[in-house]
Amino acid sequence: MVRNLAMLVGAAFVAVLGWSLLWTVVGQIKDPAPATVEATEFHKHPKELHLASDGWFGKYDKRQLQRGFQVYQEVCSACHSIRLVAFRDLSGIGYNDAQIKAIAKGWKIPQPSINPETGEVASRPNVPSDHFPAPFANEIAARAANNNALPPDLSLMTKARHGGAAYVYSILTGYEAQSAALLKAFPDVETPKGLHANPYFPTMNIAMAQQLTTDGQVQYLDGTKPTVDQMAKDVSAFLVWTAEPELESRHANGFLAVLFLLGFCFLAWGAYQNVWRDVKH
Ligand code: HEC
User: Fold this and answer.
1) Rg for the chain (alpha carbons), in Å?
2) pTM (two decimals)
3) Which atom of ligand 1 is nearest to the CA of 161?
4) Which terminus of the chain is more exposed, N or C, with fewer CB under 10 A?
């Protein structure tokens, strides 16, 4: 009796679930959700970008990383922090101790600190063990200086966005006027005042104005031609490094682990052959 009752309740439950599922499907077919611009061809996928660090055996091109750091220093650091990176980490992209000391000392934004005598807010020059200081004291100051938009920290940006370095590269080089076809299909994505049209950004309009605008904006020391495209590539490569400074050792360790496992497979196979040597199977 109880069992029958329980089965009945269960059957009723399944029937209600089935019924609501049916009507959800019918509703989707009759009245589909409106297409968002992100799902159309107007929103572009990141451009192709090939970096030396790509692939299983990828290694960083340190000269490129140094150029990218220079772009960060001269352009991006005015608005974006890389708070997870310390000056001394720059040894990873080929700077020596003396160079790092000089870079830290000469950094435009001082390190916030406290006056030990009075306890008041103060600042001091950076030293190699400091993390890169943020350009703004806090979010409110950052927004106040940027038309109420917040320039995000860039340390992990290439990990945080779909497309990684290619996305950053595409954003930096992808500013373009909105086409008439786009505005016809999606009148409400028309660029509002204070934003900038960029089809690689999810909402098609980004608060950051184009930052890399002219060839030669940064003077490279290694003879590479500082075209807009090159600067964008270099700073994107640099941001791959800030997000994963240990990439090279990860690649090397991964390779060793695979080698070890292959060796181990061979040993296991040998042991198997040995144990079953005298048994017909
Ligand atoms: C004048 C200030 C300013 C400068 C200089 C600047 N940015 Fe930005 N950036 C912003 C602001 C503001 C946003 C937030 C945009 C938004 O949310 O619409 C932003 C957003 C970004 C984003 C995030 C896009 C996303 O998906 O959220 C990336 C990546 C970026 N900037 C990279 C750079 C790089 C690289 C440089 C140096 C070449 C740079 N920016 C220079 C102000 C700046």
Assistant:
1) 28
2) 0.87
3) 26
4) C
